[in-house]
Design brief:
Elements (H helix, E strand, L loop, with lengths): L1 E10 L9 E10 L2 H10 L1 H5 L3 E8 L1 E2 L2 E2 L16 H5 L2
Antiparallel strand pairs: 1-2, 1-3, 4-5
């Protein structure tokens, strides 16, 4: 299993009359770029906002560390660090 960053764009009509494109990144676990693309297309938010894929990147390593994905038996959500908490780090 590989980790892919899927960079998506969409036009939000509630912002600037829909003139400006907004972007998000999704991280997807998949065996191939094609599978990552298909998984992104299946996301409800992707469909609801008529998103499109601007680019994708396989994430193999970060700052000299290899990224290894292994099956998790009981997922716990990661801790979100708020703006104020991050500021105080």
């Amino acid at each position: 299993m590989k980790l892919f960053m899927v960079h998506v764009g969409y036009y939000d009509k509630s912002i600037g009359e829909g003139l400006y494109e907004t972007h998000l990144n999704y991280f997807v676990a998949a065996e191939s770029a094609k599978e990552a693309k298909d998984k992104a297309h299946q996301l409800s938010e992707f469909q609801e906002r008529s998103m499109h894929i601007d680019g994708m990147k396989q994430i193999s390593n970060v700052d000299g560390y290899n990224v290894i994905l292994e099956k998790d038996s009981g997922s716990k959500p990661g801790k979100v660090i708020s703006y104020d908490e991050a500021k105080d780090l």
